[in-house]
Amino acid sequence: MDIAFIYIGLAQSLFSAFIIYFKKPRNIANRILGFWLLAIGGMFALNVVKLHYEATQDFWPISLTLSTSFPIFLYIYTKYVVSDYSTFQRIDYLHFVPLLVGCVVLIYFVPSLTQGIEEFKEELNNINSPNEVGYVFKLYIWVYCLLALIFIINYRRKIKNYFSFQSYKNSLNWLIFIIVSFLVIYNYIIYISTKYYLGAAMPHIEAFRSGALLLFVYIISFWGFKQNQLATNIRSPKLNFLKKGDESESKRYTKSGLSPKKAEQYALRLIDYMDHSEAWKNNELNVAALSEATDIPKHHITQVLNENIQKNFYTFVNEYRVKLAMEMIVSPKYDSLSFVGIAFESGFNSKTAFNIFFKKYTGMTPTEYKKKHS
């Protein structure tokens, strides 16, 4: 059982790290999560080394040093999920100083590391694992997890007037679940490790620790793959500066009772819903359905589209469909699909409507577009 958890954990960590790191769109949050999974993979690899050399000692100096990176990755991952940073901020490298210090201390106080595995195993027999380190590490974990939760709280405060929390992506409940899971699982690992160092009989301790860590790998792999970096540089849509000839359009909504501020909030909510739900793939989507999904009155949706987003419902929805169709046309993955197939996959309900709007939006027919980008 120990061996199964270790090898499955190593394979799953490396596989998830590769998939998430290269997941599109390539953003900094996914790269951080990819590196975190590699670090967790390093923990499983350490156990593989122990199995290979039939070591009975627990390589706690190395595993503890490697573990110091996990709360850091959790904190930084949270920060970049809720931010719009396109590159890693230099100041965040400072968080890895404890890891660097741990490596230096490890090499200095455990010189056998540079002499070979057998010398390291022998030296470990003479080193008593300090149980106090476990308590310090617990505090270390809690501090970083609380800092990560603060990021989420601040994010929620920032967007509460713009987005509905009905979406788990906007509420970040999935990220809170990851933080709580990390706290529970790693405190469990620390607890059983402490009991083991105090002399408790645990013949299958590695199965418990590796099994718990593997469970966490599955948790962050699943949610990390599903989630994209959120946008927090919330900007209000530009209000429509009407021309003299458009005064009738303005008067049309004078008695609607919708304030400019509320209209901006509704506009952002509409865009957020369309970006994340892909409701436009449903060729029967209408204003009533959009109203029910976003909790915005139907007449206000029409007003917000015309005045704030400056598009009618038909244009607003079909632009999403055309953008997907453009990607599908140039992607080798959809070479087997005809233009009709692409039209229906994108949410259009007829080839004619697809051709008309595609040319209006791109200035080219689907055939011309494909030839140009082949």
UniProtKB/TrEMBL annotation:
**Domain named HTH araC/xylS-type: residues:** 268-372
Q: Which Pfam families match?
A: HTH_18
Would the keyword Transmembrane helix be found if you checked this record's keyword annotation?
Answer: yes
Provide the alphabetized UniProt keywords.
DNA-binding, Membrane, Transcription, Transcription regulation, Transmembrane, Transmembrane helix
Residue ranges spanning the membrane: these are 6-22, 34-53, 59-81, 93-113, 133-153, 174-192, 207-225
Read off the InterPro entries from this record: Homeodomain-like_sf, HTH_AraC, HTH_AraC-typ_CS
Please name the PANTHER family in this protein's record: ARAC-FAMILY TRANSCRIPTIONAL REGULATOR
By what name is this protein known? Helix-turn-helix domain-containing protein
- Tell me what organism the protein belongs to: Aestuariibaculum lutulentum
